[in-house]
Records
---
Amino acid sequence: MNSVKFAIPKGSIEEATFKILEQSWTKVRRRDRTYRVVLDDPQITVKMLRPQEIPNLVFDGLYDVGITGKDWVKETNADVQTLLDLEYGKIKLVIAIPDSYNFKSLDEMILSYARKKKILRISSEYLTTAAKFIKQSKSYKKLYGSKEPLIITPWMRIGSNKNVQIFLSFGATEAKPPEDVDAIMDVTETGTTLTQNQLKIIDTVMESTAILIANKSSLKNKAKREKIYDIVTLLRGAVEGRKHLHLFLNVRTQNLDRLLKELPSLKRPTISPLSEKGWYGINTVIPKSELHKLVPKLRKIAQGLVVHEPKQILALEEIKRDEEN
């Protein structure tokens, strides 16, 4: 089998991506001064690329699988298969304007600028998404119908509506208003950077996380599909591992039934008799969010609680069902 080509993102979610790779494989090594990454599976070839590029590179078949953001899949309109939400790199794509402006939405802003015969200028890295969002506005439809906003980049101008213009941003988008543009469409995690630049959010366009995507033709190739399922299994195991805790504890025989009623697990806890008569050892996996509720109860009926964070939880039977389907 030819190796499965795996594109991973360089940039803002690079560090988080390496953390999940290190949870999923036993060896993850970056080659010095290159964009090559080596896993302990010789059938997987890994390269680091910009997340903006990955959806189209996977769609075109230059890579079989890739990690990128939902936002970039939407922006590029790449016809790829989403395999797994990796649940990190959480951001919002928002419309923001200067604090001094009184508008409550982009729709309101479009209407006001049209009435005053002013050109509305918006800056963003997300040209396609910005144009779609603007065209969905009630005011825009009423004023301009199906006209495309004018998109302006250093190398081209497309679109017929000069009254609403979208300027390609190459970064530091939050620094553009109010001198250069009237509004921005940009990503934010906490909103802190926007606030520091005297900007406020008036619309949320979408929420995004890092996702694993695949080329649809690669999934139809039997040999590649098996290796892609291996990648999904290992990454999903890491995602689930982050949300659970592995508990070990001891309990007296008379408290065993009471404990089992209180204790969550993936299926059922493992129960083993201890060498000391009248005691059992309990081994279980619980949702991380349940620990604080359990501790007060466990203090009264158990001893010797040991808590581990699992590296992975592999739901192998679930993957088998997916393969059969």
Note: The domain at 92-208 is CATH 3.40.190.10 (D-Maltodextrin-Binding Protein; domain 2).
---
Amino acid sequence: MTAIAVTIAGSDSSGGAGIQADLKTFSALGVYGASVIAALTAQNTKGVTGIHDVPPDFVAAQMDAVFSDLAVGAVKIGMLSTPAVIETVAAGLKRFRQDKVVLDPVMVAESGDRLIAPEAVAVLKRDLMPCALLITPNLPEAAALLDTSIAVNEAEMRLQAERLLGMGVKAVLMKGGHGKGPESADFFADGTHMIRLTATRVETRNTHGTGCTISSAIAAGLAKGRDLETAVREAKAYITAAIGAADRLAIGSGHGPVHHFHAWW
């Protein structure tokens, strides 16, 4: 059977993040990708200049069309900017009994532009986080979800991962890409154990779409039947290689994208 994953997220007009990054990742990892577009952005490597939210009823219509026909193996959720859209997506996941859900709580773009309405954060925590098998916050996102300061060391990252689990989340991947030092360390916690995943930090400005890419890589692994820990480990290796190859691309004049197809061209 063909492995199928669906991304529910915002579109990035420059192609480096969002829906476009997710579909590229699915394809690179041998998974058929479908999409539900929740927002359009006017965006390039230098920043976001506009966001146009898709009406909730049309988001629901896309979900109904995709999930009623395709044998979906996993779902990745990215940018959902309004409370109504978040509620719609949560209801759709329950309606179609989707349990392999990777939630990337996207709040701020690589450029620093805010991508979610402040009032939507509470709805994300209340309605969507309980639907997720895994959430993948970076350091600023974890701090926003916990209403606390950004973790500045690995001890604080571990503590915040445990606090997120205490909110009812099934599993957490705390991403350390915003940290400093020669290693980029992430922490995977599922309530029974915590695993430190490291990679040599790559010095590049081309990191646009990293969060979207690792979360969609995890979803691709789940769609192929991997267990969660294996999917996370394989996704970490994939994003590390994609960042390492990013400077082979010359895209835009700001934060360029990672190289999703580094193994191919």
Note: The beta strands are 4-12, 32-44, 47-53, 74-77, 101-103, 134-135, 172-174, 183-189, 194-200.
